[in-house]
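Rotation project, supervised by the postdoc (A.L.). Task for the rotation student: set up a whole-complex structure prediction and record inputs and outputs verbatim in this book. Inputs entered:
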Amino acid sequence: MTFYYEGQPVEAYEGESVAVALYAAGFDSLSWSSSLVRPRGLFCMIGKCSSCFMIVDGVPNTKTCREPVREGMRVERQRGWASPVASESVELSELPEVRIDTDVLIVGGGPAGLSAALTLAEFGLDVVLVDEHFKLGGQLLKQTHKFFGSVDLFGGMRGFQIAEDYVKRISSNPRIKVLLESVAYGAFRGGIVGVASKEAHYFVKPKALLASTGAQERYLDFVNNDLPGVIGAGGAQTVMNEYGVKPGERALVVGSGNVGLIVSYQLLQAGVKVEAVVEVLPEIGGWFVHAAKIRRYGIPILLRHTVKEVSGNGRVEKAVVVEVDEKFNPVPGTEKEFDVDLVLLAVGLEPDTRFAMQCGAVARWSPELGGLVPLRTLDLETSVPNLYIAGDSAGIEEATTAIIEGKIAALSIATKLVESSKASKAREEMDKLIRFLWDVYRASPLLARARKGKESVTVSREEMDKLRVEFPPPISFG
Amino acid sequence: MGGEVAKKGTIIICRCNDVTLDDLMKAIEMGIDDFELLRRYLRLGFGPCQGRSCIMIAARIFARATGKSLGEVLANYKVRPPIVPIPTKLVLRGVKK
Amino acid sequence: MAAVQGFRKTGVVGLEDLSALGLLPPEWRLRKGPVVVLECPEMIPCNICVPYCPTKAITMERLIDLPKVNWDKCTGCGVCVAVCPGLAAFVVDLSKEDADYVTVPHEFLPAPKVGEEVVLLNKHGERVGKGVVTRVWERNKTYVVTVKTPKGLGMEVRAIWVER
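Outputs recorded:
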């Protein structure tokens, strides 16, 4: 199909996002920044940042990573943010306002949200599942590697295959209403959540709510860290694994956690030369087997190194890497240059807790979990009654624990909303799963850091009751 | 990476509003010792991504520069709706001409 | 603070480490014919190799334990090479006089063909020679490739690269 970029025809495939189609066509910059007028290319590719905002069919500030291509659409670059339009030209909403009363609203259709939705539906509860993307699956969609675990935890399946399996079961389940290209933009008094979509402006009133809103890439400070070609590792995964577009020719990967190691392997699979993985710590961050997978194809992992500067004309052409001392200060004279057109940031993820925090959930800083995360009970309820969290938005861990947490939250919600005989079955299953998660799964020393973080933000029911008195929730659901 | 590197080129902290590391360091040197004040002064987190790119990196730099813990720095961080950009027309009401 | 294990700095696990963890097949077993080498030195919460092993040669008490191989039961069939999510299972056959045989997982295109000459890579990604592909099969997009390597490289070669 054909669409128009600043008047020029661009060929694209159906099912591609506008941002990916432009990138595949060789357009590195999608916008200019607001005051310094610097070119900005794609960065997160999952609707978290603002780098891909463009004017689409006259509508400014359109997130083009979430906008599917349509025949004949017109796309233009914008500078900064669109100015307010004159009042006479304001187009008033003709979207219907629709009120939905439901048992459970799930915000975010990644691994946690998907597993929760199915579990809730199995207990006969009605679910509204909202996701910003034009397809369900969250970041599972771009996981082409096989997952660890046991067979009943999808171990051995590739991430996107797990998503396919869930989506198949969810789309045929009449109890689950899926709202795609829809954003839950806020919760309001009376426990009503506003959801903006292309078809309607929804006001959803749930009896319980699960915020499984995922995470965003941690940003890093180095010279020209916004130059097109500096992309979040996850963003590059979206480009190559979800859409099959080669993200560049030669890459430098910053960070050797599992994300950095896995993305390096996937770059190799996509035919991109990975010059090096740099790691600021004196030890590889991720699991050994992921490191071994790239080492045996000759990708060097440079410990105690970081990126200092990138440069290029409108796109990364060169990256300068430097050694650091024990205090992480650059050691002068140790600079190494790499001719690369891609610098991927894999320096950690930060939980996207904005939905839960806007609802008033009491949060605590946890370095192990990557940021401010809501305090929660063992069954994942926050200080806002009937508001649950699961997955990376509850603190960075990994997809399998997200699936388990989604299920635990769903079972806890079920204990409250279904009749007593089924409720006791839900409780039994939930207790079993909580024991498995903490005593079996998280017993792995590889998860010790995440476990420590999760312990630090998990409180007893009694402590939670006290918190609710001390910090009365401004909103409640139910 | 600190001020020494900043002098050699632009380091962006907030991608939405083009706040640089230099802006941040100058504000701290000026005496801003409260993160919420800093946020309001530099409009960190006021752009359409609502702080998803900048808050944590800014908080880390601020904590390092002021010797505060990140828990302290973020103690008063609040999130207000809309938490994601939505079309203005969705919430506008009026009479059509 | 405990010393960082060598393989956590290099991404390369040595034979001494594997031996200490009970993951290295004993001498007698290596002489007998094809056998698995599970280069899985960390306690990953994963047991996929256990249910898939057709001879029940791999066991694990807890999900997070290191795999334990019964060297009598292992036939070196290579099913674990295909299913291991960490791509950490290999089969080596050091029993032949003229050459060694190594079976590795391979997830790159083009798919290697039987009879084709390929580049042999060690754990550091260094080219250590050339070998000939003797068997290829596929399971869920992972190719399981057996290569004939020069004698003495059986414990070194851990990947192949197809150059066409």
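Student's summary: Confidence is low (pLDDT under 50) at residues 1-6 of chain B.
Supervisor addendum: The radius of gyration of chain B is 16 Å.
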